[in-house]
Amino acid sequence: MEYIYAALLLHKAGKDVTEEAITAVLEAAGTEVNDARAKALVAALEDVDIEEAMATAAVAAPA
Amino acid sequence: MEYIYAALLLHKAGKDVTEEAITAVLEAAGTEVNDARAKALVAALEDVDIEEAMATAAVAAPA
Amino acid sequence: MEYIYAALLLHKAGKDVTEEAITAVLEAAGTEVNDARAKALVAALEDVDIEEAMATAAVAAPA
Amino acid sequence: MEYIYAALLLHKAGKDVTEEAITAVLEAAGTEVNDARAKALVAALEDVDIEEAMATAAVAAPA
Amino acid sequence: MEYIYAALLLHKAGKDVTEEAITAVLEAAGTEVNDARAKALVAALEDVDIEEAMATAAVAAPA
Amino acid sequence: MEYIYAALLLHKAGKDVTEEAITAVLEAAGTEVNDARAKALVAALEDVDIEEAMATAAVAAPA
Amino acid sequence: MEEVHHTEHVPQWKKDEVEDIKEHINKYPLFGVVAIGGIPAKQLQKMRKGLQGTAVLKVSRNTLIRRAFDESNEDVNKMHEYIDSQTALIFTENNPFKLYKILEQSKSPSPIKGGAVAPNDIVVEAGPTSFPPGPILGDLQSVGIPAAIDAGKVVVRETKTVAKEGEVVSQKLASMLTRLEIYPVTVGLDLRAVLESGSVFTPDVLAIDESKYFSDIVLATQQAFNLSVNATYPTKDNITAIISKAASEARNLGINATVYEPDIMGSLLGKAQSEMLSVASAASANNEEAVDDELKE
Q1: What is the pTM of this model?
Q2: Which alpha helices (DSSP H) does E1-63 contain, by range?
Q3: For D18-60, how does the pLDDT look when each residue is reduced to its tens digit (9 = 90+)?
Q4: For residue G2, is it within any domain?
Q5: Helical axes A19-28 vs A35-45, angle rounded to 10°
Q6: 10 Å Cβ neighbour count for G43?
Q7: For residues B57 and E4, which has the higher predicted lDDT (pLDDT)?
Q8: I need a surface site. Which of E18, E49, F38, G191 has the fewest CB within 10 A?
Q9: Are residues G204 and G225 in the same domain?
Q10: What angle do CA A3, D12, G98 make, to 5 degrees?
Q11: May I ask the CATH architecture of the domain A2-53?
């Protein structure tokens, strides 16, 4: 989930969620970054309304 | 919520959630860091089992 | 999700989920394989107990 | 479940779920293919709506 | 309500909920203290398990 | 939660929720006050309508 | 090709028929042995037409079928045991499971004949019939059907089992059942076995439980989704769930650990307020004077 938290952090900070930005955040946390995972995340986020997706958390059904 | 995302990122990456680490992560994300918020976060998490706290539904949870 | 199904197939077949294996399965299905996605999947599964992860409900407890 | 995973992989990849396609995918995964099972699957899927089953999965309580 | 807040504050801080303690807290908040009410509250809470009573507040405010 | 109770107490008493006021209340309760948490709380409450947040809880609270 | 040193005379048409069966066996990748007992000739004709383009139905004498099997390869010999009275062969290029499904779907309920054995319990349901009062009443009663007159119509007073599975149905009962439009017999091409590439498939294998496939697909979909989210492998299909999960975790942590973040202050205040109200109600239950007027409602 580190990659996701990084993406949400960037989003909340009002920054673009790019491969470079994710890499920078993760590296600052001292983790080794896997380029493919960063790429896959950015690709998956394309056209996604992060704000809306986060809002679904409040109403999501419990497991 | 940036501070919480930063804390979760560090936690998931297997790092200690310290003021310095949070500051580093937030700065890498391009945000200005408020020392008091970072300090307060670390203080709040001091005796908390992060893994458990993040998995426990906050709505129905007893105090 | 094709990549995930490929991973599940390999796992069930008792094979290691490697980039090569995923690529072979997807190619046999007639799809063009994106190296980064295959790599990202293998990285994501690295420390994951597949059996447990596939059986555990993915929806988090609501906030 | 390997046969089902193979079928869903093909379906998700936009391919027809034929006996040959299933056999190819399973063989690529290194499994020995039972012709009868592949045939039975193809016959069954003629009357089973994969899209509907997938939609059911999305709303049903997770496994 | 101030009296209850004061009581909960003391409870959460690990202090005994006494008339003197409630009075001290309320005075620090700049409120005039009604001795009878403070006495009545302390008496009323005597055989109440505060922790348990708080836990029944299962329905929290929406996000 | 002590800090939250202190804030609500001050609010109900018609006082401003400042760092100094929170500190005074908590100290009167005999707790050691973490400056950063008090600061963070005040900052977090800046744009929050306390009255409204309390009202939503009142509606949902058990009898 | 044919060596004729039999002393017995075999008519040419029989020889042709056997050859024809053998040719069919060789030409098609699979064939089945089908029971056609109880199918009226007219209905059989209709079924044969219905199969056009899917399968070829060949009705022949058992002796000729046996001879054709004997003269074919060893695999075909495995099919001998499925030849019984009134047998036909069916040839197709289809998948054996599909063939079975098609034949099952073509079966239809039919009246039972007098003297036939009940294939399962035959039940007459309570309720009205379409008959006006008349001799039918006595006819129904005489075969044990509890008939009566009600509101100018013949009715069946109570649900009754008129024949148990395995019992012989009398001529009279059979005709009453038919008049009541109760059709206890399923008539159709009954596939006994299929031979494909040396393997014999019988109905216990050929019958597909489609609901099982449906539920397996549901399960597989859930497993894939769970794995993809739990392992954090983001795709278009699951990214919303992954973000939602991360956001929930962050909120849970924030509220449970009381982290003062603007986004969750409303929840924290609400939680504190709820706790206060609960404790207030516990206190006022002991002493009303313990709480202020605002809380006495």
Answers
A1: 0.79
A2: 2-12, 19-28, 35-45, 50-55
A3: 999 999 999 999 999 998 999 999 999 998 999 999 888 876 5
A4: no
A5: 130
A6: 15
A7: E4
A8: E49
A9: no
A10: 150
A11: Orthogonal Bundle (1.10)
Contact A21, B27 (CB under 8 A): no
D4: closest CA among G276, F5, C12, G132?
Answer: C12
Q: Is the residue at G127 inside a domain?
A: yes
Chain F residues with CB-CB distance to B44 below 8 A: 37
With beta carbons under 8 A apart, name residues in chain C contacting D57. none
Mean pLDDT of chain G: 88
Lowest mean pLDDT among A6-10, B56-60, F32-36: B56-60
Looking at the domain F2-60, which fold is it?
Answer: Arc Repressor Mutant, subunit A (1.10.10)
Under an 8 Å CB criterion, which residues of E touch G?
1-5, 7-8, 36-37, 40-41, 43-48, 50, 53-57, 59-63
Where do runs of H (alpha helix) occur along chain D? 2-12, 19-28, 35-47, 50-59
Average pLDDT over residues G293-297: 66
CATH architecture of the domain formed by C2-55: Orthogonal Bundle (1.10)
Does G247 map to a domain?
yes
Whole-angstrom Cα distance, residue E18 to residue A36?
A: 61
Q: Which CATH class is domain D2-57?
A: mainly alpha
Residue-number span of the structural domain to which G203 is assigned: 12-107+188-208
- Left, alpha or beta for G122 (phi > 0: left; psi -120 to 50: alpha)? beta
Please, which pLDDT band fits residue G198 given cuts at 50, 70 and 90? confident
